[in-house]
Design brief:
The protein has about 120 residues and is of the alpha+beta class. It has one domain (about 5-115): Alpha-Beta Plaits. The chain has helices at about 15-30, 65-70, 75-80, 80-85, 105-115, and strands at about 5-10, 35-40, 55-60, 90-95. This is DUF1330 domain-containing protein.
Length: about 120
């Protein structure tokens, strides 16, 4: 099942040289784990609800295990401080949904569990 690394980052007014170095080198840390960028600070973002002043980064992996192994790899951990020293934000690893997932089926199961309780 596909998994995702998602970051909500608050970029500094001016990108630090170490952040640029991080951006130039991150793909080499993703390649062994089959990670690929799906979103990388998209130039067009429309906030539909709430307040959101951050950049979004989403990287897809074939599995949660590969995403986890990438984040904790020596290569990425060595590179990571180049970003975290100059940008605030949050980062998550999240499992995707299985093929054929339907929100209505999940709601029905939750409703049944709530009724049974």
């Amino acid at each position: 099942m596909t998994a995702y690394a998602i970051a909500h980052l608050r970029p500094a007014p001016e990108l630090h040289a170490e952040v640029l170095d991080y951006m130039e080198r991150i793909q080499s840390t993703l390649d062994p784990f089959e990670g690929r960028f799906l979103i990388h600070g998209a130039p067009r973002t429309e906030v539909l609800e709430g307040d959101f002043d951050r950049a979004v980064v989403m990287i897809g992996f074939p599995s949660y295990d590969q995403a986890h192994a990438w984040y904790h790899s020596a290569a990425y951990q060595e590179l990571l401080p180049r970003r975290t020293a100059h940008m605030d934000g949050d980062a998550l690893l999240i499992d995707g949904v299985p093929p054929g997932y339907e929100a209505a089926a999940t709601a029905a199961a939750l409703r049944a569990a709530r009724t049974a309780a």
